[in-house]
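Dear colleagues,

I hope this message finds you well. In preparation for our joint manuscript, I am sending the Very-long-chain (3R)-3-hydroxyacyl-CoA dehydratase (Corythaixoides concolor) sequence together with its predicted structure, so that both groups work from identical material. I would be grateful if you could confirm receipt.
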Amino acid sequence: SFTMDTYLFVYDLMQFCGHSWIFTNMIIRFMSFGKDSLADTFYSIGLVMRLCQLLSILEILHILIGIDKSRLFPRFLQIAERIIVLFVVINSQEEVQGKYVVCVLFFLWNLLDVVRYTYNMLARMGIYYLPLTWLNFSLCIPLYPLSVLAKAFAICVSLPYFESFGTYSIKLPFPFAFSIYFPYVLKTYLLVLFIGMCFIIPNLFSERKAHLRTGNIKKKRS
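The corresponding structure tokens are as follows:
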């Protein structure tokens, strides 16, 4: 148990450092260069962002082996959404990387994650600061739908480029006569994205209710 708690604390610390660096970098660049900083957000912080999102796949493993008590399906959906949008949509189309929506999306993701990993680190040490608990489980309720809208907008912006360049579209030769037109796949995924949001939002409310009740109980006991 001590070994697992130590491992999870180190994992949360690594994610906190990565997302804090991204978030601080974005703010400093915006304060220094204004709107000019938005267009090259991906080029400045994209590598660290990709590393952090790849590392987050471990959270699914944590749930599967039982060291994290979070619900698997909602967490899987949230991680999968980010991986797909970041690596399939944004990373594969250089023209999309300079769009302002990428900056908005990264800002929302990192704001949520800086708070979440701060809360997780303190929780590993048995520290439950009620205002931080409230912020962690309340901030995601308005920001998650906004991030879904930003993801959807990023996909819509990318569609003309996938249509022009044929990226990921596959056409097999005779006798298979089978083809996959990737813009249709993305349009279908837009529907999946909003269906997933309808599933995740009630889960966010239930988590908020459960953790705030637990936080109040622990505060009274202390």
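For the figure legend, we might mention the following. The chain has one domain: 1-221. Residues 74 and 200 are 6 Å apart (CA to CA).

With kind regards,
E.M.
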